[in-house]
Amino acid sequence: MLRFDLSKRLGSKSFHFVGEAGEGVTAIVGPSGAGKTTLLNLISGLMKADAGHLIFNSQDIAQLPAHQRGIGYVFQDQLLFPHMSVEKNLRYGERAGRIGFADILGFLKLDALLARRPATLSGGEKQRVALGRTLLSQPRLLLLDEPLANLDQARKDEILPYLESLQERFSIPTLFVSHNRDEVKRLALRILTIENGQITSAT
Questions:
Q1: Cα–Cα nearest to 175, from 43, 7, 46
Q2: Is residue 114 a contact partner of residue 44, using CB atoms and an 8 Å limit?
Q3: Is CB count within 10 Å lower at the N or C end of the chain?
């Protein structure tokens, strides 16, 4: 279980997020600029909250640096290393744990891509590599910030089945930011709606 009460001021904007998320996928929705990515950045530790707490599995991790929180983050842009092969990208940050390299190759069907560089991959292939790299860091919590936003419909249709089966395969609590209602309907067990820097509803 994740529970949070986090405040942050950025310029003239104030954010105060109070909410919780359990097992499975929790979608975070709301208009552009409402604070969806800000919430993920505060939870991940990429941005430090001005005040508040972040309780994950009974531990307050709000003061821990990002690398000690055990949180995996998949961004809208895949942020792969262009000079590295797919295999080296996957192994970057790899940790020993229950999710093995062979598990990821099989789950995301990456075997045939290992020797290639990111520049030669399609958008869908890049996102599969980015997801695999994140899973190999053995995250206790997964954050997905509009991972399908930059993909055309064919590539979205390619990636969605992997996201749907992710929970059954690895059982990682996930926060999923999306503007797409169909994606939210397919993936999420619950929905947090953000407006003007606050969570206004939880369903």
A1: 43
A2: no
A3: C
